[in-house]
Every structure is written in C-alpha cells, then in structure tokens.
Design a protein that fits this description.
5-stranded mixed beta sheet; 582 residues; alpha/beta; 12 strands; 4 domains; disordered N terminus
C-alpha cells in the first residue's frame, strides 16, 4: 500500500463493524421469511422454519459480538480473525439450504436454490470485495459448495447433465464474479485516490493563489499611501522647477512625473487583478441604460482620440439596456476603447456599437488597426501578455488591461470575445444579458477622472478654489502634509485634522471636507463623512483600501469617492466640482 492509499484505507471501516449492518439485518430476515413460507408449501414446515431460526440466531449473535465493548478492545489482528470466523459461520448457516431445502429430482427447486445462493454471493461480493479477499473467497466456497456438490453427485448418478452443470455453476460462478468485482473495486479506488490527489493539488494551488492575492490586497493600503504622497510632493517640486531656468531640473521633474504615472498605473492594475483573483470584488448587477454610458465614454476619450487623429462614433439606441454593474462595465469598455484608439491609424474611426444577440446585447468596439492573428487571440486575455511589444515599453501598457476586463465581465455574468484578422482591424465584443426592468435613476457617484476633466474649466479654477476652506482629515503625516501643501498652493485655506474628534471641532469653520476612510479604524472615516454630510457639507472620501465596502457605502450615500493614489489634477477637478455645488 502506498502512502497515498493509506488515508483511503483509514476512511473505509470494515463492513462488519458498520452500524448499518444491524439496521439492515431485520429486513433481510423478512425476505428470508418470505422464501421460507414459499418453500413450506412444498416441504415440511419444520425445515424452512429451522433454517430461518438458524440464520436469525447466528446473525443476531454475530451482530451482538461485533457491537460488544470487549470486541472493540481486541487487537487489530484478533479482531480481523474474529470477523472472518463470524462471517464464515454465518455463511455456513446460509449454506444449510443444501440439507433443509434440497429435494432430489426437483429441478425447479434446484434452480431456486442456485438463484438464492447466487444472490447471497453477489451481496457478499459487493460487501467484501474491497476489504478482505481471504474472507470473501472462503465465504463463497462455504456458501455454494454443499449445495453444488449434492447437485453434481445427483446429476452424475441420474445421468442428467443439466443438474450437475447447475451444481458446478453454483460452486464456481461466484468466484470469477468476485474477481471481476475486486478488479472493478481496485479501479474505483485508484480513480478515487487520483481524484483526491487532484483535488488536494487544486486546493493547494488555490490556497497559494488566494494567499498571494490576499497578500497584495492586504498591503495595498501601505503601497498606495507612499505612492499617493509622492504624487502630492511632486506637484510642489514641479511648481518650484517651473519658476527656475534649470533645464536639467525640468527634465528630471518630467522623468519623475512619468515614472510616477507609470508606477501608479501598474500598481492600480496589479492590485485590481489581485482583488479579482482573491474573489474580493463583487458585482452589483442592476438594469443599466447603455446610451448614457457610451456617451460618457466618448466624451472621456475624445481628447485622446483627437490627439491620435481618430474619430469616435457611437451607434446605440436610447432604449437599449443590460443587466450589469455600471462601474465595472465602464472600466471594461474604457479599456477596450482606449486600446482601440491607441492602435487605430490617424484618419480612421473607432466605432462603439450595440448589436442584438438573442437574449443578449453585444457591445462592440471596432477599430481599423493592425488586427490580431488567430493564434494570438487565445493569449490576449492572459496576464502580462503584450503583442508586438518585445521591449516591454510601458507606453504600450502592462498587458493587464484585457485580463482585468475579462474577469470584470464574467463577474457581471457576461462574456468578452474578439473577432479579428491580421491587418484587418479588430472587433472586441462584450456580451451581456438584456434587461427589461426599469433602470436605476443614478449609477453611483464614483468619480470618472476624464469626465471631470471635461467638466472642469481650469481657466477659472483658481477663482473658485482661492480662499476655499477645506477640512482635511488624514491620519498619515506624510500624506497629510503633502495634501496640505498642495491645497494651499491652489489658494485653499486648510484645516488639517488627524483624528475624528479634532475634525468635528474644526468642521464649523470649513466649507468642504476631504476625508480618509481609515482613521484609526476601518470605517471611522465613513461615519465622520456621514456626520459632515448631514450638516450640509460636501464630502470627498479618499481611500487606499481595495475593499469594495467603502465604495458601495459612498455610492449609497451620495459621497464622492477616490482611490489612492490620486493624481493632483484629478483631485483639483473633484474639489472644483464640490466648490461649485456648495
């Protein structure tokens, strides 16, 4: 027995020790009583009665011995031999039909006896074939030999081949039956062991994957905080460099800014992927109108399209709606649209179209780029796969966007696919279930940076922000100091609080609030934000957490929500929007 098979044997107790044996025994006696009653119409009644009492007595004694406390105290070897002896005695009682039921010359009764013994042998084989081969073999010989020998002798003496052949079958047919059952049992055991091994390996792999994902998700806050602070301090450095004539300093700041943006983008995508792999992201599927969503996407990407000389075209009807998570779907389509613009040649068009597909809507993003070969189409949704980017230039992305888009689409119950040929453009398709329910009035309040960039009039931003009294609630000294300096550079008057108690004291002197979610406790910032909002103050929530709960809380309570690291330009646009609403 191999080490892998040992646990399997431990999980299969001897069948004679199973409590179910005692529970099923009375039903077996009832069946045997029916057989005895039938035979009593042919033979004297005392014969089937004595046979039945013999089986009932020995069977009951066997069960009592097995269930007795002393039996459990025996060693494994002695218990094994005790079990063998008990089953052999019990089979001897069953084989007594060779005396009690045997009627010379009655071929029909001989056939009934052979059938009875064959049924008992089949039950015995199914019961013991995977446990004790010696007990099974001896039991089969004890069960069928007395009756078989009598049939063989009678058939030879009477010159009736049918009887002695029936006797041979009574003795020997159960033996190959047991062999077949044993082989089948071994195959089943091997399959069982292989399945257990495969499940164990799958669980181990899943454990490692989830542990890795939980690790990334757990440290995301600690990673986002310094990256967010770097962006804040970089803005102050950039202002100082702009006032100087040092060319090297200008180049250094541009390089640092580009590196920060690359790190920010990579960190966000890696942590998003980790959250998805750890099943920490849940879709809030609701009826969603597609026309407003596609309109927002076109507005957000119009600047990028203009820079690349690409036209954006949206083909959607006002009544088309799907069951989807608005934020997730927007992230998916934004990624697809950004890729389409990036790979389309100048002067061509990128088309956003909604096409029917049975009970679904198929949202297509079509471009006129270089296309994707059939061999590469199976790879593009894998992590860190980038076609035609051997040098791994970060300007072309990190190879995570489509992997994230695929997971987000599947979380919503949809599917994402590609149709393309090399040199003939590409059509990315997101298929989602049609919705006939009334759409929600609002899709949430999570901030879309590109949309805010379109809405914000930066030429008058300073007029709105100058003198704006901002309550900054941030317990991280590095982030808080960088945020304070940045806000003051925009002309804001900053009241910085590091605790909830201080924030409540300063709230009366402020017009808007920027509040971190984690303030000594996971949800302390949420409670403070609700308190400030109830007093009529516009509140912006900022968090380095990847948990979806704060985001959902913000959406339910109409709070603006940003995820660290936040680019200074995005922070300014959001703050400007809040200043205009107050």
């Amino acid at each position: 027995m191999t080490a892998l098979e040992a646990p399997l044997a431990d999980t299969q107790p001897d069948p004679e020790e199973l409590p179910a044996d005692a529970a099923s025994f009375p039903w077996g006696l009832l069946v045997l009583a029916g057989i005895g009653y039938f035979v009593s119409t042919i033979l004297p009644y005392w014969k089937p009665l004595t046979w039945w009492l013999l089986i009932a007595g020995i069977g009951s004694a066997r069960i009592w011995i097995i269930r007795h406390t002393r039996f459990e105290q025996l060693s494994a070897a002695r218990r094994r031999w005790r079990l063998r002896g008990l089953i052999w005695v019990f089979m001897l009682a069953n084989s007594s039909v060779a005396y009690f039921f045997y009627t010379p010359g009655d071929v029909s009764l001989h056939a009934l006896l052979a059938l009875y013994l064959f049924v008992i042998a089949s039950i015995l084989t199914a019961h013991l074939s995977s446990f004790d081969k010696l007990r099974l073999l001896v039991s089969l010989l004890i069960l069928g030999t007395p009756t078989g020998v009598r049939m063989i002798l009678e058939g030879i003496d009477a010159g009736q081949p049918a009887i002695w052949v029936l006797g041979l079958c009574t003795i020997f047919v159960p033996i190959p039956l047991a062999q077949i059952a044993t082989v089948q049992t071994r195959l089943m055991q091997r399959q069982f062991v292989a399945r257990i091994q495969a499940e164990s390996e799958a669980r181990a792999l899943s454990t490692v994957t989830h542990a890795q994902a939980r690790f990334f998700a757990a440290i995301s806050h600690d990673l986002r905080q310094p990256v967010h602070a770097i962006g804040l301090y970089l803005e102050a450095v950039k202002r100082l460099v702009v006032q100087s004539d040092d060319v090297s300093a200008h180049q250094a700041v541009r390089g640092i800014k580009l590196s920060w943006e690359t790190l920010n983008a990579l960190l966000t995508q890696v942590l998003d992927l980790a959250r998805l792999d750890a099943n920490m992201e849940q879709a809030d599927v609701q009826p969603l109108l597609l026309a407003p969503l596609l309109r927002e996407l076109v507005l957000e990407h119009s600047s990028l399209a203009e820079q690349n000389g690409v036209r954006l075209v949206a083909l959607v009807q006002a009544a088309q709606q799907v069951d989807a998570d608005a934020l997730m779907l927007k992230r998916v389509l934004s990624n697809l649209l950004g890729n389409a613009i990036k790979f389309s040649p100048p002067g061509r068009a990128v088309v956003l179209a909604v096409r029917p597909a049975g009970a679904h809507w198929r949202i297509q993003v079509r471009d006129a780029g270089c296309g994707i070969s059939e061999a590469d189409q199976a790879l593009i949704f894998s992590e860190f796969v980038q076609l035609d980017n051997v040098a791994r230039s970060s300007a072309q992305g990190f190879g995570l966007g489509l992997a994230i888009a695929k997971r987000l689409t599947e979380l919503q119950g949809g599917a994402i696919s590609v149709r393309s040929q090399r040199g003939a453009g590409c059509c990315m398709q997101v298929t989602l279930t049609r919705s006939v329910a009334a759409p929600l009035a609002e899709r949430g309040h999570d901030v879309a940076p590109a949309e805010l960039a379109q809405q914000a009039d930066r030429s008058v931003a300073r007029n709105w922000l100058t003198g704006l009294q901002v309550l900054l609630v941030e317990d991280d000294v590095m982030v808080g100091d960088g945020m304070r300096q940045l806000l003051q550079s925009w002309g804001c008057v900053v009241c910085w609080a590091q605790t909830v108690e201080v924030a409540r004291q300063l709230a009366d002197n402020c017009a808007v609030a920027i509040c971190d979610v984690r303030l000594g406790a996971p949800t302390a910032g949420l409670a403070l934000a609700s308190y400030l909002q109830a007093s009529g103050m516009p509140v912006m929530l900022i968090s380095g957490e990847t948990d979806v709960a704060p985001r959902n809380y913000a959406a339910q309570h109409g709070l603006v929500f940003l995820t660290k690291p936040v680019a200074p330009a995005v922070l300014r646009d959001v703050l400007l929007s809040m200043a205009r609403r107050r």
